[in-house]
Design a protein that fits this description.
By secondary structure, this protein is mainly β. It has a single domain, classed as Lipocalin (Beta Barrel), CATH 2.40.128. Helix content is 14%, strand content 53%. Strands 1-2-3-4-5-6-7-8 form an eight-stranded antiparallel barrel. Strand 6 and strand 7 form a beta hairpin. The protein starts with a helix and ends with a strand. The mean pLDDT is 86. It comes from Marixanthomonas ophiurae. This is DNA topoisomerase IV.
Length: 127
């Protein structure tokens, strides 16, 4: 009986855990996102304010519009797409925040396949 009570208490404590989601802190600023591309670690730097995001990747800048759905979700769409795949909007959702980092998931709007990543805020700046 004691074991059953302990297991029940553990489920209650774990079930009540809410990850930190201070999304408001990540609406504006300069961020870095690192991803493994093949065998190479690539870094993307992006600056975001409430409505514009500028990405810097491999020496090239790209500007996207940002439309916030709520404090933790937004839609990003390239302003000047160069091909059909760049025309597609991307749904971003901040899952957790921790200090100057946030974990997010993203997918092309209308598609089920989601990917995850972590971005780090490197400074609080305005575009």
């Amino acid at each position: 009986m004691r074991l059953l009570s302990s297991i029940f208490l553990l489920f209650i404590l774990v079930g009540c855990y809410q990850p930190e989601r201070n999304c408001e802190k990540f609406k504006n600023g300069t961020f870095e996102f690192k991803a493994l591309v093949g065998t190479e670690l690539q870094t993307t730097t992006f600056m975001r304010n409430d409505s514009i995001e500028i990405d810097y990747y491999q020496g090239k800048a790209d500007t996207s519009s940002v439309r916030w759905i709520n404090d933790c979700e937004y839609i990003v769409q390239k302003i000047n797409p160069k091909n059909r795949s760049e025309e597609k909007a991307i749904h971003m959702k901040i899952l957790t925040t921790d200090g100057d980092e946030y974990t997010f998931e993203y997918n092309i709007v209308g598609q089920e396949k989601k990917q995850k990543g972590t971005a780090t805020k490197v400074e609080s700046s305005e575009i």
